[in-house]
Specification:
This protein is an alpha+beta fold. The protein has one domain: P-loop containing nucleotide triphosphate hydrolases (Rossmann fold, 3-Layer(aba) Sandwich), CATH 3.40.50.300. Helices cover about 15% and strands about 30% of the residues. The protein is built from 2 helices and 4 strands. The protein has helices at about 45-50, 95-100, and strands at about 5-15, 20-30, 60-65, 65-70. Strands 2-1-3-4 form a 4-stranded antiparallel β-sheet, with helices on one face. Strand 3 (about 60-65) and strand 4 form a beta hairpin.
Length: about 110
Amino acid sequence: MSDAILTLGNLHVSYGQVNAVRDVSITVPKGSLTALVGANGAGKTSILSAVSGLVRPKSGTTYWPTKRSSKPTSGSTDSSAPTSQQPPAVGAASFISTLAQGDPNLG
């Protein structure tokens, strides 16, 4: 595990009675380019939410070189990035006006 930047062992995430992820084990080697792909409903967001601390796994372990946890705290402060499945609301706005929403100098 010393050259891995992230290791998940038998991760299990559930929402009430619904099992979103069961017994997922992943090792991400240092210096690698790693993608998490799958069909809709496969559990990609649930895995990332558990890794980032947004949801608490039912069982399993997450291992970072500086941190090991079997139950990440919900809303932990060391999360990499939030996950979301809601696309931004753009509507009929133009490309430039959409960009301007993120940069006040573009409007």
